[in-house]
Amino acid sequence: MTITTNLKQIYETDENLWLEETIKLLKQRQFTQLDIENLIEELISLGKRDLAKAKSLLRQIMIHILLLQYWQIEYERNYHHWLGEIKTFRYDLNNHLNTNLMNKLQDDLENIYQSAIDFVQVKTDLTIFPEKCPYTLAELLDDNYLP
């Protein structure tokens, strides 16, 4: 049984051990011993997780900016909470971003905005939101920006 076969079996039973062994092989540059099939699967999954996290954080920023900007009846009671949420989500997103994720967020900005609008409409019963995203990605990521 080869190391690659063992790695494939390990992957099925102990993903963390598989990861540790794969990292060792990569550091030792023993590329022929790698479980390439599962390594590719894990890298694809990692990319999807990173993008999903970035979209979720951006959506949360949009949701709280929309609440802050449009839900006047709850403004006084929730203003500081919404500001805190915006600040936290911006911090988390800015620490998570790389150039590739920024480009993907930019490309999907309208879809993310629409999902934020869907949520805010259900929460508030408001229907007064702009049809198109009124914010740029740079504004949404900027700690000093509020509409």
How would you summarize this macromolecular structure in one to three sentences?
The chain is mainly alpha-helical and 147 residues long.
Describe the 3D structure:
The structure is a single chain. With 147 residues, the chain is mostly helical. It folds into two domains: 1-34, no CATH class; 49-141. The protein has helices at 3-13, 15-27, 36-70, 75-96, 99-107, 109-124, 137-141. The termini are far apart.
Structural class assignment:
mainly alpha
Provide the succession of SSEs: HHHHHHH
Low-confidence spans: pLDDT under 50, at least 5 residues? none
Number of helical elements: 7
Topology overview:
Layout: H1 3-13, H2 15-27, H3 36-70, H4 75-96, H5 99-107, H6 109-124, H7 137-141
Helix pairs in contact: 1-2, 3-4, 3-6
Features:
2 domains, mainly alpha, 76% helix, 147 residues, elongated
